[in-house]
Specification:
- The chain has 2 domains: 182 residues, Endonuclease I-creI (Roll); 100 residues, no CATH class.
- Helices cover 60% and strands 14% of the residues.
- It contains 11 helices and 8 strands.
- The termini are far apart.
Length: 301
C-alpha cells in the first residue's frame, strides 16, 4: 500500500461536521466527476468510495447507484462507479459548480483541499523519493484555484503543465507536513515526520562523513608533500640549515606521516619539552619549504 493510499484511507475514516462535508464534496466533485445529465464518479479505493457515498447521501439525501467492475489490464483491480441520476441541478447549485468556489472560512478551505486531494491528489513516498505532493487538474483555471487556496496557508504551491494535465504541487517537506496536519491525518503525519527526521539525520551524517573524508585526504596529501620536502633536504645535505625545533618537528613528521597539524602538535607537546600548537607546526613547515625553495633558486641560476 502506497503512502498516498494510506493517507487517503485515514482521511476517509475521520469524522466531519456539516460545513466540512459540503466543502469536501465540492472539492471532490469539481475535479473528479463527470457532471452532465447525470453525475458519474469513478474510484479505485474502497474506503474513499464508502466515504464519498456516505457524504453524498448525508448532504443531498440521495443514494447513489454503486457499480463494481474488475479491471484486468496490467493488473487485476476493482473499479467503483457511483452514479447520481436525480437532483443534478440542486447539486450543481450547492457546490457552485459554474463559478469559482465560495470558501469563506479556514474550515471550508481545509475541507475543500481535503476533498480535492481525495479526488485528484497524490503524494510521493517520503521513504524512497523526494518530497512532492500534487493535485492533477484538467485545466489551468482549476489548477490556479487549488494554488490560490494552498498559498492562502503559505504552502508555496506552484503550477506546471505535464502532458495534457496541469499540476498544482508543493515540494517543501514542511509545507507537505502542514497540509497533512490540516487534513487531521495524525498517523500519516507521524509517519511522514518520522521519515523526514530520519532522512534529515542521515543526510547530515553523510555530509559530516564526506567532510571528514575530505579533511583526511587533505591531511594525507599535506603530509606527503612535507615528506617530499624533507627528502629533498636530506638528499641535498640541507638538514644542518634547520634549527633545533624544526629538526624535532621533522623527525616527528617522519614518524607520524598521516597525522594532522593539531595531532602532530599534541604528540610533540606530550612526548617532549617543546610545547607547540597547530599554528607553530604550520610555521615550521613553511620554514622547511622556504629552505627548499631558496636552494632550488640557487640551483636554477
Amino acid at each position: 500500500m502506497t503512502f498516498t493510499t494510506r493517507l487517503k484511507e485515514e482521511i476517509s475514516k475521520l469524522p466531519n461536521n456539516d460545513i466540512e462535508k459540503r466543502s469536501i464534496i465540492e472539492g471532490f466533485l469539481r475535479y473528479n466527476s463527470q457532471i452532465k445529465d447525470t453525475i458519474i464518479i469513478t474510484l479505485e479505493n474502497a474506503s474513499v468510495t464508502r466515504f464519498i457515498y456516505k457524504i453524498i447521501k448525508e448532504t443531498f439525501s440521495i443514494t447513489p447507484k454503486v457499480t463494481v467492475r474488475v479491471q484486468k489490464r496490467f493488473r487485476v483491480k476493482q473499479i467503483y462507479i457511483l452514479e447520481i441520476n436525480s437532483q443534478i441541478d440542486y447539486i450543481k447549485e450547492v457546490i457552485n459548480i459554474n463559478n469559482l468556489p465560495s470558501l469563506d472560512s479556514d474550515e471550508e478551505k481545509y475541507a475543500f483541499l481535503k476533498g480535492a486531494f481525495l479526488g485528484v491528489g497524490n503524494v510521493s513516498n517520503p521513504k524512497t523519493s523526494g518530497y512532492h505532493l500534487e493535485y492533477i487538474l484538467s485545466n489551468m483555471e482549476d489548477a490556479k484555484v487549488i494554488e490560490e487556496v494552498l498559498n492562502y496557508f503559505n504552502l508555496n504551491a506552484k503550477i506546471i503543465k505535464r502532458g495534457y494535465k496541469y499540476i498544482t504541487y508543493i515540494k517543501m517537506s514542511e509545507s507537505i507536513s502542514d497540509l497533512i496536519k490540516m487534513f487531521r491525518a495524525t498517523n500519516s503525519l507521524f509517519e511522514f515526520e518520522d521519515t523526514r527526521i530520519y532522512r534529515d539525520h542521515k543526510n547530515m551524517v553523510n555530509r559530516l562523513n564526506n567532510c571528514e573524508i575530505a579533511n583526511q585526504e587533505k591531511t594525507i596529501k599535506s603530509g606527503l608533500n612535507q615528506l617530499e620536502d624533507i627528502k629533498y633536504l636530506e638528499e641535498n645535505d640541507l638538514l644542518p640549515l634547520m634549527d633545533e625545533k624544526l629538526s624535532l618537528v621533522v623527525s616527528y613528521r617522519k614518524k607520524y606521516p598521516e597525522t594532522s597539524f593539531q595531532e602532530l602538535a599534541d604528540i610533540i607537546s606530550m612526548e617532549t619539552d617543546y610545547k607547540v600548537g597547530k599554528s607553530g607546526i604550520n610555521h615550521h613547515f613553511r620554514n622547511l619549504r622556504k629552505i627548499k625553495e631558496e636552494h632550488l633558486k640557487k640551483q636554477n641560476k
